[in-house]
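Example complex used in Figure S2.
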Amino acid sequence: MNETVTIPRSVEWNETHITILNQQKLPLETEYLELKEIKDVWEAIFSLKVRGAPAIGITAAYGLALAAQSYQTESIIKFKQLLQKDRDYLASSRPTAVNLFWALDRLLSSVENVSSVNEAKTTLIHEAICIQIEDEEVCRQIGEHALSLFKDGDKILTICNAGSIATAKYGTALAPFYLAKEKGIELKVFASETRPVLQGARLTTWELMKAGVDVTLITDNMAAQTILTKGINAVIVGADRIAANGDTANKIGTFGLALLAKAFNIPFYVAAPLSTIDLKTNTGADIPIEERNADEVTHISGTRIAPEGVKVYNPAFDVTPNELITAIITEKGIIRGNYTEALANLF
Ligand SMILES: CSC[C@H]1O[C@H](OP(=O)(O)O)[C@H](O)[C@@H]1O
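Predicted assembly (347 residues):
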């Protein structure tokens, strides 16, 4: 059986602007925004209108290519100085997902040996488009490998949104569910709501329901009870940065799920492209963890739920130590065991 499945996309290049699906408005409104200037791109990434490690990288790449089109210089040296400045500006939008830096630096490298401004402008657009096209294929391959770990009828828990709208298409942790749907394999997904920004409740449920994937929403504090009573077979999550030793930064709450998976003796999988692996970062302790505005914790959908003036701690990510990860699934296959060696061998 090969079913046609609706899989949403969140970023589109339109020559004079970038169109993004405003992920802050989902699921109540399907709003598309046109990003015409570099400051729009920075703001869209910072405010999570576009989010998810690969989607951030793709949008930033288009943003840098777009900015470069307006440089008024014939000097390639001046052009590259302006490009570096804009690269650094976009790189300051969010600190944890390494795909942002990977994509921006890939654009810089693409023009390293280019000596004419016109050629550099065309090359940058071409490179950004390649990043998006490649990410779609990479996510499909991650999905194929991840699907080989599941069997018909399995119930799988996930957190945040590592889905199609967090990437070029298919997603990372959610990719196997789209492929299973296409192939007629029944998998049941349990989506953890993911406080404070509710990517699980708002985005994962939205995109999986659109595709007809069986999804059940739980609040974050229901995870242990759900694993126990629903017979969850595995946990699968995405990643924002995987250190050289396999320690993995992902949405806050992921570490807790990994500990639960160990306690219940079920596998805990991380699904991510090679662009999320950062061999320059030795261990999880070296990964910068973004701390976001207190409003995200004290308010839900603009309504205050905590007393005025309360102290707040709002880390957006946590780090799961490598020993809690059963396997890391990339486009090149599934790796287990000694991550330091296996990850290095991927490159
Ligand atoms: C496909 S990676 C998705 C990744 O992005 C998330 O973070 P955010 O919503 O803050 O951009 C999260 O950690 C997910 O696993």
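DSSP finds eleven helices and 16 strands in the chain. The longest strand covers residues 155-159.
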